[in-house]
Automatic annotation (TrEMBL):
Keyword Nucleotide-binding applies: no
Source species: Cladocopium goreaui
Signal peptide: none
Lineage: Eukaryota, Sar, Alveolata, Dinophyceae, Suessiales
Keyword Nucleotide-binding attributed: no
One biological process term in Gene Ontology: RNA processing
InterPro entries the UniProt entry points to: Alpha/beta_knot_MTases, rRNA_Methyltransferase, SpoU_MeTrfase, tRNA_m1G_MTases_N
PANTHER family: RRNA METHYLTRANSFERASE 3, RRNA METHYLTRANSFERASE 3, MITOCHONDRIAL
GO molecular function annotations of the record: RNA binding; RNA methyltransferase activity
Gene3D superfamilies: 3.40.1280.10
Pfam families per the UniProt record, alphabetical: SpoU_methylase (PF00588)
Keywords: Methyltransferase, Transferase
The protein, known as: NAD-dependent protein deacetylase sirtuin-2
């Protein structure tokens, strides 16, 4: 069973209660049992989520989220010690730091205890994330705005796009309810912890996007894959409004696509080659970030009128595919 650090003369870590785990049946590790089939407390509606890997745990410890437990292969302790000891512990009691060997860790979690999976943390979901009370209005800022709106993407794609969003300075990610849970273990892992840094709101994009465009002076840009005469190539789009939202994964949704003033495709040399959603989104966000920096602070209407002067997709040339 878990034993107190003082009894076993385990290393002292400031702000943490350190325990040595010697048995996979110890109740203290119940939250980490069989992460391939986790308990309801780790579901989208649950109270907690798992963060996997030393790099992601460092971001967690520096974030606004409350960390309850860290399960760690003992050999990784010293590399994580600075982050553990510098964490802002707002809660009254110390969090638990659980140390064990790799073999026992694998028996507990049912996943290989390689580098990324040899460090796991249990964190609390914010109440507003569980209740859906985190609204986009709470997360928007005045002035220049970069937002990403996602629809019909699985957990790994969601995680990848949070990583892309962080790289290109996105201020907020808006997720439709059709998307995978951004705090699923796979999402957090693929994002390399960036889901902990980029604010997000969840709900129905069909309700949220029209309100956003109507009330917040925001322009909408959709990434297009299919042939559409209304599309322009990204390299033909010279300017963009300084407050924009980029819509990913909504092709085929007539209502959402109708909200977007710009339908943008990526011109390619090779036909029929899919870039994948993460690569295509990276190109798109990089292009939009470059263009909003060059755009004078004008209204959505004026910015849109300028794009009417841009040429539409040529009849021949590269193909628009994600």
């Amino acid at each position: 069973m878990a034993q107190d650090a003082a009894e076993l003369q385990l290393p002292s870590v400031s702000g943490w209660s350190v325990y040595l785990v010697k048995d996979a049946s110890d109740p203290i590790v119940a939250d980490f049992l069989d992460l391939k089939d986790p308990g309801s407390h780790l579901s989208r509606e649950g109270s907690h989520f798992i963060v996997e890997g030393p790099e992601a745990i460092r971001l967690l410890l520096a974030s606004r989220f409350v960390t309850q437990k860290v399960l760690l292969k003992a050999s990784l302790l010293e590399s994580l010690r600075p982050s553990l000891e510098s964490a802002d512990r707002k809660e009254a009691c110390k969090a638990l730091l659980l140390l064990c060997d790799a073999g026992l860790m694998e028996r507990i979690t049912c996943i290989p205890a390689r580098h990324a999976s040899a460090a796991l943390a249990l964190a609390e979901r914010a109440e507003r994330q569980r209740s859906g009370a985190a609204t986009w209005k709470e997360l928007l800022k005045p002035g220049p705005l970069r937002a990403l709106a996602l629809k019909q993407l699985d957990e790994e794609s969601v995680g990848a796009l949070f990583r892309v969003a962080a790289a290109f300075g996105v201020d907020v990610v808006l997720l439709d309810s059709s998307c995978g849970d951004p705090f699923h273990r796979r999402s957090v892992r693929v994002s390399m912890g960036q889901v902990l840094r980029v604010p997000c709101a969840m709900g129905s994009l069909e309700e949220l996007l029209p309100q956003l465009l109507r009330d917040e002076d925001v322009d909408a840009v959709a990434l297009c894959e299919d042939e559409d005469e209304s599309c322009v190539y990204l390299d033909k789009l010279s300017t963009i409004h300084h407050r924009w939202v980029c819509l990913i994964g909504a092709e085929g949704n007539v209502d959402l696509m109708a909200c977007c003033r710009h339908r943008v495709a990526i011109q390619k040399v090779a036909k029929g080659v899919s870039l994948g959603v993460a690569v295509a989104s990276s190109i798109m966000l990089n292009g939009l970030a470059e263009r909003d920096g060059r755009t004078p602070k004008v209204s959505v209407e004026e910015a849109f009128n300028r794009t009417l002067m841009e040429p539409m997709l040529p009849e021949t040339g590269g193909e628009r595919v994600m």
